[in-house]
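User: My advisor asked me to double-check a structure prediction for Acrosin before group meeting. I don't want to rely on an old file, so could you generate it fresh from this sequence?
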Amino acid sequence: MPQAAVPRTRNPPLRDISPGSKDTVAAVGIAAVAVLLHGALSACCSHEPLAAMNWLSLLVLMTVAGLAHSMEYTCGGTCGLQAVPSVYHPMTYSYGSLDYGMTRVVGGADALPGAWPWIVSIRHPWVPGLRHLCGGSLIRAEWVLTAAHCFDQVTDIGMVYLVIGATQLTQPGPGAQLRRVKQLVIHPYYNPDDYSYDIALLELDHPVLCSPYIQLACVPDATLRVSELQNCWVAGWGSTAPRAQTSSDHLQEATVQLINLKICNSSRWYAGKIHTHNLCAGYPQGLIDTCQGDSGGPLMCQEKNSDYWWVVGITSWGKGCARARRPGVYTSTLYFSDWILFQMRLSPDGSPSPTSRACSHFLTTSHFWIHYITTPQPPLKPWPRATPSPKPMPVPTMGKVNSCPFPIKILMEFFIRVKELLQQIFGQNTS
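Assistant: Sure, here is a fresh prediction for Acrosin from the sequence you gave:
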């Protein structure tokens, strides 16, 4: 996306939340927890053999150390939560006094690691430079949402690979994960001439593991009023200036405004080229926009009075970058929420659909375009909204309580509670 022609020192400094810095916190936490637990257990079980005490202390250390050094876990349970909030605060614009004569390109800033943990870099070895082809959004552990036009020139999907959990392309870091593509699903009505139905899904060769740097994105359901969302952002590794031919090494982010489709489609703007399944976002003056290389990446809006972020759009196209009355054009994920569920072999209630695999349109090594057909879309069905579901606390049993609770069941309950507590602690350390 375009960036201001100013020294890079104007960008907010990066806060080090790399695994190296977390190891220091983890080491202190391990030592403190071990000392406290050893003392407490010694007081409780002073009559037990020393070997048993040492064994229990060792189990505690292994539990804590494992959490500190391996924060990866199976994705699921929640979506749309940032590990690190964005700190970039651009100028605020309104539709009031517009200065259409402004031609300055003012863009985003370097995103912090974990700020947008669902963003994906889609790469191809034939792309010059950083090999970055397009962006994408991780919406399931094995599914990435992106734009169909990213694959217009791709003849072998087996050469495409994805990097998840990275902020800098040249130094993805130890938290990043690499995946290959199992299959590519392109909307059957996609038209490369006018970029209608510009949406695609990538199924990964195997699921990713979530971490503070890798989280699932939320896709809106019919209950979300996208037009009322105000805190919206774009992010990507695209060009930082118009007509630039290289991608940005560091993930860029910027805040944008949703623009009414009637205004965006008016004669002085895009003059009827915007479809009903599109969104427009940017500013009437231009100034901030997505650019080449940001295609397929997310347009994200925060839910009111909530910490949840929704991927409401997929970066599709635009006339130039950051031009006045030429905002970025995005594919609406709300419009295609039912199609997305269907292709992932999920029914609207989240259970597998036995017929969806046979009906899906999969792409492997070549393209089979079905041009734009004005067919009515099926009614939208609610997207299964993922919300945290706390585990029920174990019900205490009645009866005599031993002074030293060493039974396996009690030990397992104890370690589960320790694990949940430490996950909360380490989660707070990354925010």
